[in-house]
Amino acid sequence: MARMDRDTLADFLRRRREALSPSDVGLPSGAGRRTPGLRREEVAQISGMSVDYYARLEQRRSPQPSTSILAALARTLRLSRDERDYLYRMAGHHPPDSGNVPSSFVRPVLTHLLTQLDDCAAFVVSDLEIMLAQNRLSVLLMGDRRAKRHDAASSMTWQWFVEPKCRELYPAEDHDEHSRVRVADLRATWSRRRADADVAALVDGLLVRSQEFRSLWDRQDVEVHHAARKTLMHPEVGRLTVECELLATYGDGQRLVILSADPTSESYSKLQLLGVVGDDKVSSMIALDQ
Protein backbone atom coordinates (compact mmCIF):
# COMPACT_ATOMS: atom_id res chain seq x y z
CA MET A 1 0.00 0.00 0.00
CA ALA A 2 1.40 3.43 -0.96
CA ARG A 3 1.89 6.33 1.40
CA MET A 4 -1.04 8.67 1.91
CA ASP A 5 -0.37 12.24 0.70
CA ARG A 6 -2.50 14.20 3.17
CA ASP A 7 -1.66 17.64 1.79
CA THR A 8 -2.49 16.84 -1.82
CA LEU A 9 -5.58 14.83 -0.86
CA ALA A 10 -6.95 17.67 1.29
CA ASP A 11 -6.39 20.26 -1.43
CA PHE A 12 -7.93 18.03 -4.11
CA LEU A 13 -11.08 17.40 -2.04
CA ARG A 14 -11.50 21.08 -1.28
CA ARG A 15 -11.10 22.14 -4.89
CA ARG A 16 -13.49 19.50 -6.19
CA ARG A 17 -16.03 20.43 -3.50
CA GLU A 18 -15.82 24.12 -4.41
CA ALA A 19 -16.21 23.32 -8.12
CA LEU A 20 -19.68 21.83 -7.59
CA SER A 21 -22.87 23.80 -7.17
CA PRO A 22 -25.75 22.58 -4.95
CA SER A 23 -27.86 21.94 -8.05
CA ASP A 24 -25.21 19.52 -9.34
CA VAL A 25 -26.09 17.14 -6.50
CA GLY A 26 -29.83 17.84 -6.36
CA LEU A 27 -29.77 20.42 -3.54
CA PRO A 28 -31.48 23.84 -3.61
CA SER A 29 -29.09 26.73 -4.19
CA GLY A 30 -30.65 28.96 -1.56
CA ALA A 31 -29.50 32.45 -0.68
CA GLY A 32 -26.75 33.77 1.52
CA ARG A 33 -24.12 31.16 0.69
CA ARG A 34 -20.82 32.76 1.65
CA THR A 35 -18.54 30.10 0.20
CA PRO A 36 -18.31 28.76 -3.36
CA GLY A 37 -19.50 25.28 -4.19
CA LEU A 38 -20.79 22.75 -1.70
CA ARG A 39 -20.40 23.05 2.05
CA ARG A 40 -18.41 20.47 3.95
CA GLU A 41 -21.51 19.31 5.80
CA GLU A 42 -23.31 18.76 2.48
CA VAL A 43 -20.52 16.57 1.12
CA ALA A 44 -20.45 14.63 4.38
CA GLN A 45 -24.21 14.09 4.46
CA ILE A 46 -24.47 12.94 0.86
CA SER A 47 -21.45 10.64 1.30
CA GLY A 48 -22.82 9.06 4.48
CA MET A 49 -20.06 10.14 6.88
CA SER A 50 -19.80 12.50 9.81
CA VAL A 51 -19.06 16.17 9.22
CA ASP A 52 -16.13 15.93 11.64
CA TYR A 53 -14.54 13.08 9.70
CA TYR A 54 -14.82 14.89 6.38
CA ALA A 55 -13.51 18.12 7.93
CA ARG A 56 -10.44 16.26 9.18
CA LEU A 57 -9.76 15.01 5.65
CA GLU A 58 -9.66 18.59 4.35
CA GLN A 59 -7.65 19.72 7.37
CA ARG A 60 -4.86 17.17 6.75
CA ARG A 61 -5.36 15.45 10.09
CA SER A 62 -7.39 12.34 9.28
CA PRO A 63 -6.31 8.70 9.37
CA GLN A 64 -6.13 6.95 6.03
CA PRO A 65 -9.67 6.72 4.59
CA SER A 66 -11.01 3.34 3.58
CA THR A 67 -11.83 2.44 -0.01
CA SER A 68 -15.55 2.56 0.80
CA ILE A 69 -15.14 6.16 2.01
CA LEU A 70 -13.24 7.04 -1.15
CA ALA A 71 -15.91 5.43 -3.36
CA ALA A 72 -18.60 7.49 -1.61
CA LEU A 73 -16.61 10.70 -2.04
CA ALA A 74 -15.97 9.96 -5.73
CA ARG A 75 -19.71 9.59 -6.30
CA THR A 76 -20.65 12.69 -4.30
CA LEU A 77 -18.04 14.90 -5.95
CA ARG A 78 -18.99 13.61 -9.43
CA LEU A 79 -15.42 12.60 -10.20
CA SER A 80 -14.45 11.35 -13.60
CA ARG A 81 -12.66 8.01 -13.78
CA ASP A 82 -9.25 9.71 -13.94
CA GLU A 83 -10.10 11.94 -10.97
CA ARG A 84 -11.36 8.97 -9.00
CA ASP A 85 -8.15 7.06 -9.63
CA TYR A 86 -6.14 10.10 -8.54
CA LEU A 87 -8.20 10.33 -5.33
CA TYR A 88 -7.40 6.70 -4.50
CA ARG A 89 -3.68 7.16 -5.15
CA MET A 90 -3.41 10.30 -3.01
CA ALA A 91 -5.15 8.39 -0.22
CA GLY A 92 -2.57 5.61 -0.48
CA HIS A 93 -4.75 3.00 -2.18
CA HIS A 94 -4.61 1.28 -5.54
CA PRO A 95 -7.38 2.55 -7.86
CA PRO A 96 -10.25 0.10 -8.31
CA ASP A 97 -10.55 -2.03 -11.41
CA SER A 98 -12.03 0.34 -13.98
CA GLY A 99 -14.00 -2.48 -15.53
CA ASN A 100 -15.93 -3.14 -12.34
CA VAL A 101 -16.52 0.19 -10.60
CA PRO A 102 -19.25 2.45 -11.99
CA SER A 103 -19.05 6.22 -12.17
CA SER A 104 -21.76 8.77 -11.42
CA PHE A 105 -20.06 11.32 -13.70
CA VAL A 106 -22.22 11.77 -16.81
CA ARG A 107 -20.14 12.80 -19.81
CA PRO A 108 -20.97 16.32 -21.10
CA VAL A 109 -21.67 14.98 -24.60
CA LEU A 110 -24.26 12.60 -23.14
CA THR A 111 -25.86 15.41 -21.15
CA HIS A 112 -26.04 17.46 -24.35
CA LEU A 113 -27.67 14.55 -26.16
CA LEU A 114 -30.38 14.35 -23.50
CA THR A 115 -31.34 17.98 -24.08
CA GLN A 116 -31.56 17.45 -27.85
CA LEU A 117 -34.09 14.59 -27.58
CA ASP A 118 -37.05 16.91 -27.18
CA ASP A 119 -39.75 14.52 -28.42
CA CYS A 120 -38.54 11.55 -26.35
CA ALA A 121 -38.13 10.98 -22.65
CA ALA A 122 -34.47 10.12 -22.04
CA PHE A 123 -32.38 9.46 -18.98
CA VAL A 124 -29.09 7.99 -17.76
CA VAL A 125 -28.99 5.42 -14.97
CA SER A 126 -26.25 3.45 -13.27
CA ASP A 127 -26.11 -0.33 -13.43
CA LEU A 128 -27.93 -0.34 -10.06
CA GLU A 129 -30.78 1.75 -11.49
CA ILE A 130 -29.71 4.98 -9.77
CA MET A 131 -30.93 7.93 -11.81
CA LEU A 132 -27.99 10.13 -12.85
CA ALA A 133 -29.55 12.50 -15.39
CA GLN A 134 -32.92 13.19 -17.04
CA ASN A 135 -34.11 15.39 -19.85
CA ARG A 136 -37.13 17.66 -19.35
CA LEU A 137 -39.67 15.30 -20.90
CA SER A 138 -38.44 12.44 -18.70
CA VAL A 139 -38.99 14.60 -15.60
CA LEU A 140 -42.49 15.52 -16.78
CA LEU A 141 -43.32 11.89 -17.54
CA MET A 142 -41.72 10.11 -14.59
CA GLY A 143 -41.11 12.85 -12.05
CA ASP A 144 -37.70 14.06 -10.97
CA ARG A 145 -35.96 10.80 -10.06
CA ARG A 146 -32.39 12.15 -10.01
CA ALA A 147 -30.61 10.78 -6.97
CA LYS A 148 -29.34 13.15 -4.31
CA ARG A 149 -27.30 10.35 -2.76
CA HIS A 150 -25.84 7.20 -4.21
CA ASP A 151 -26.74 4.56 -1.64
CA ALA A 152 -28.97 1.50 -1.82
CA ALA A 153 -32.15 3.50 -1.10
CA SER A 154 -31.43 5.70 -4.15
CA SER A 155 -31.80 2.73 -6.50
CA MET A 156 -35.09 2.60 -8.36
CA THR A 157 -34.98 -1.17 -7.84
CA TRP A 158 -34.91 -0.60 -4.08
CA GLN A 159 -37.76 1.89 -4.36
CA TRP A 160 -39.80 -0.53 -6.47
CA PHE A 161 -39.74 -3.21 -3.78
CA VAL A 162 -39.72 -1.04 -0.65
CA GLU A 163 -41.80 2.03 -1.54
CA PRO A 164 -45.20 1.00 -3.00
CA LYS A 165 -45.94 4.51 -4.27
CA CYS A 166 -43.20 4.11 -6.87
CA ARG A 167 -45.34 1.52 -8.68
CA GLU A 168 -48.16 3.94 -9.42
CA LEU A 169 -46.56 4.92 -12.73
CA TYR A 170 -47.30 1.44 -14.12
CA PRO A 171 -50.57 -0.52 -14.47
CA ALA A 172 -51.13 -3.05 -11.68
CA GLU A 173 -51.34 -5.91 -14.18
CA ASP A 174 -47.74 -5.21 -15.26
CA HIS A 175 -46.21 -5.10 -11.77
CA ASP A 176 -45.20 -8.77 -11.66
CA GLU A 177 -43.29 -8.51 -14.92
CA HIS A 178 -41.57 -5.30 -13.85
CA SER A 179 -40.50 -7.00 -10.63
CA ARG A 180 -39.14 -10.01 -12.50
CA VAL A 181 -37.19 -7.87 -14.99
CA ARG A 182 -35.67 -5.66 -12.29
CA VAL A 183 -34.43 -8.65 -10.30
CA ALA A 184 -33.07 -10.42 -13.39
CA ASP A 185 -31.21 -7.25 -14.38
CA LEU A 186 -29.80 -6.86 -10.87
CA ARG A 187 -28.63 -10.49 -11.03
CA ALA A 188 -26.59 -9.62 -14.12
CA THR A 189 -24.97 -6.66 -12.35
CA TRP A 190 -24.37 -8.76 -9.23
CA SER A 191 -22.58 -11.40 -11.30
CA ARG A 192 -20.09 -8.77 -12.51
CA ARG A 193 -19.65 -6.83 -9.26
CA ARG A 194 -20.76 -9.09 -6.42
CA ALA A 195 -17.71 -8.17 -4.31
CA ASP A 196 -18.49 -4.43 -4.49
CA ALA A 197 -19.97 -2.81 -1.40
CA ASP A 198 -22.73 -0.91 -3.23
CA VAL A 199 -24.03 -4.06 -4.92
CA ALA A 200 -23.92 -6.05 -1.68
CA ALA A 201 -25.75 -3.29 0.21
CA LEU A 202 -28.56 -3.22 -2.34
CA VAL A 203 -29.01 -6.97 -2.64
CA ASP A 204 -28.63 -7.72 1.09
CA GLY A 205 -30.95 -4.88 2.01
CA LEU A 206 -33.67 -6.05 -0.35
CA LEU A 207 -33.35 -9.65 0.83
CA VAL A 208 -34.14 -8.39 4.32
CA ARG A 209 -36.87 -5.92 3.38
CA SER A 210 -38.90 -7.66 0.65
CA GLN A 211 -40.35 -11.16 0.52
CA GLU A 212 -41.23 -10.61 -3.15
CA PHE A 213 -37.60 -9.78 -3.92
CA ARG A 214 -36.36 -12.85 -2.04
CA SER A 215 -38.65 -15.13 -4.02
CA LEU A 216 -37.56 -13.69 -7.34
CA TRP A 217 -33.88 -13.63 -6.38
CA ASP A 218 -34.01 -17.33 -5.56
CA ARG A 219 -35.16 -18.08 -9.12
CA GLN A 220 -31.71 -17.09 -10.47
CA ASP A 221 -33.13 -15.35 -13.55
CA VAL A 222 -30.48 -13.30 -15.36
CA GLU A 223 -31.48 -10.89 -18.12
CA VAL A 224 -30.63 -7.36 -19.23
CA HIS A 225 -33.46 -5.91 -21.32
CA HIS A 226 -32.18 -3.86 -24.24
CA ALA A 227 -35.62 -3.10 -25.70
CA ALA A 228 -39.16 -3.41 -24.44
CA ARG A 229 -42.62 -1.91 -24.74
CA LYS A 230 -43.95 -0.30 -21.57
CA THR A 231 -47.28 1.10 -20.51
CA LEU A 232 -47.26 4.08 -18.16
CA MET A 233 -50.05 5.72 -16.17
CA HIS A 234 -49.43 9.46 -15.97
CA PRO A 235 -51.63 11.26 -13.42
CA GLU A 236 -52.54 13.99 -15.93
CA VAL A 237 -52.45 12.59 -19.48
CA GLY A 238 -53.44 9.06 -18.48
CA ARG A 239 -52.37 5.79 -20.09
CA LEU A 240 -49.67 5.79 -22.76
CA THR A 241 -47.45 3.18 -24.39
CA VAL A 242 -43.76 3.78 -25.11
CA GLU A 243 -40.91 1.87 -26.66
CA CYS A 244 -38.02 1.56 -24.22
CA GLU A 245 -34.59 1.38 -25.89
CA LEU A 246 -31.28 0.89 -24.12
CA LEU A 247 -28.99 2.70 -26.54
CA ALA A 248 -25.65 2.55 -24.78
CA THR A 249 -23.78 0.88 -21.98
CA TYR A 250 -20.39 2.05 -20.81
CA GLY A 251 -17.44 0.57 -18.95
CA ASP A 252 -18.31 2.92 -16.09
CA GLY A 253 -21.68 1.22 -15.61
CA GLN A 254 -24.02 3.78 -17.16
CA ARG A 255 -27.01 3.24 -19.42
CA LEU A 256 -28.74 5.67 -21.75
CA VAL A 257 -32.45 4.87 -21.93
CA ILE A 258 -34.90 6.44 -24.39
CA LEU A 259 -38.69 6.22 -24.14
CA SER A 260 -40.36 7.04 -27.45
CA ALA A 261 -43.75 6.55 -29.07
CA ASP A 262 -45.01 6.01 -32.61
CA PRO A 263 -45.45 9.53 -34.09
CA THR A 264 -48.90 8.54 -35.39
CA SER A 265 -50.11 7.30 -32.00
CA GLU A 266 -52.17 8.88 -29.24
CA SER A 267 -49.28 8.18 -26.85
CA TYR A 268 -46.99 10.38 -28.94
CA SER A 269 -49.53 13.19 -28.80
CA LYS A 270 -49.67 12.87 -25.03
CA LEU A 271 -45.88 13.05 -24.79
CA GLN A 272 -45.87 16.18 -26.90
CA LEU A 273 -48.61 17.72 -24.77
CA LEU A 274 -46.43 17.22 -21.72
CA GLY A 275 -43.46 18.73 -23.49
CA VAL A 276 -45.28 21.80 -24.76
CA VAL A 277 -47.35 22.94 -21.83
CA GLY A 278 -45.60 21.39 -18.86
CA ASP A 279 -47.04 19.24 -16.11
CA ASP A 280 -48.74 22.06 -14.23
CA LYS A 281 -50.95 23.03 -17.21
CA VAL A 282 -51.89 19.62 -18.57
CA SER A 283 -55.02 19.25 -16.43
CA SER A 284 -56.58 22.46 -17.71
CA MET A 285 -55.74 21.62 -21.31
CA ILE A 286 -57.44 18.22 -21.04
CA ALA A 287 -60.50 19.81 -19.41
CA LEU A 288 -60.89 22.20 -22.35
CA ASP A 289 -60.84 19.32 -24.82
CA GLN A 290 -63.61 17.38 -23.07
UniProtKB/TrEMBL annotation:
SMART domains in UniProt: HTH_XRE
Residue ranges constituting the HTH cro/C1-type domain according to the UniProt record: 37-84
Signal sequence, renumbered to the chain: none
InterPro entries attached to this UniProt entry: Cro/C1-type_HTH, Lambda_DNA-bd_dom_sf, MLTR_LBD
Protein's recorded name: Helix-turn-helix transcriptional regulator
Lineage: Bacteria, Bacillati, Actinomycetota, Actinomycetes, Mycobacteriales
